[in-house]
Amino acid sequence: MKSILRTAAAGVAIASFGIASAASAATTDSAEVTAEILTALSVDVDPLDDTLNFGTIADGGIAGPTNLTVDTADALVACPALLVCGGTTASPTFNITGLANAVVDISFVNATETLNHTGVPPVGMLSTLQAGSFVDSEAGQVTLDGSGEASFTVGGTLTVDTNQAPGVYVGSVSVEVAYN
Q1: Inside any domain, residue 61
Q2: What's the number of domains the chain is made of?
Q3: What's the Rg (C-alpha) of the chain?
Q4: 12 within some domain
Q5: pLDDT value of residue 5
Q6: Cβ atoms 167, 119 nearer than 8 A
Q7: How confident is the model over 64-98, as pLDDT tens digits?
Q8: Does residue 32 form part of some domain?
Q9: For residues 140 and 99, what is the distance between their CA atoms, to the nearest angstrom?
Q10: C-alpha–C-alpha distance, residues 6 and 139, integer Å
């Protein structure tokens, strides 16, 4: 019996040694944890310069959809043949506020926007226009100044079709800004 107890005690000692060895082989290390909180980024249209205006347009006999473009510097690029263009054209100004010296990407929420006739158009005449091919004066990216501010203007293209109802058309263009 003593021999069995000695053997059992020796087995427990050997097993304990194995457990102690495994425990003493454990090790730990740590990694750095960081986060950067950016200043809130906002974009607002300038209330004194808030319209992409294509001016006044008259159909002089166009045969199909015809495009006219207002650039980011308020100018009508050219009045297409068979359209009569007049009035004031304008590009809206958007102001960005965010983290000083940060790079900001500018994009448009939609590739095209629908402008709707504000009145009741004559029966059988088209009551919507499409604006698109939007561009910004900063070519899609701007670096905020030391105060965290920047501005840009927007231009675009309007498509006028035959049988367009006379009257005023209204829509919107939406821009989105994001830290690069």
Answers
A1: yes
A2: 1
A3: 34
A4: no
A5: 43
A6: yes
A7: 999 999 999 999 999 999 999 999 999 999 999 99
A8: no
A9: 18
A10: 86
Tokens of 62: 């166009």
Pairing of strands 93-97, 141-143: unpaired
Alpha carbon of 117 to those of 45, 82, 123, 166, 171: distances in Å?
23, 22, 13, 9, 9
**pTM, two decimal places:** 0.80
The residue type at 120: V
**Which of the four pLDDT bands, split at 50, 70 and 90, describes residue 8?**
very low
Pairing relationship of beta strands 175-179 and 169-170 according to DSSP bridges: unpaired
The pLDDT tens digits for 103-144 are 999 999 999 999 999 999 999 999 999 999 999 999 999 999
User: CB–CB of 117/169 below 8 Å?
Assistant: yes
Position 155 in a domain: yes
Which residue in this structure is represented by tokens 């010296």? Answer: 101
DSSP H or E stretch at residue 117 = strand 112-117
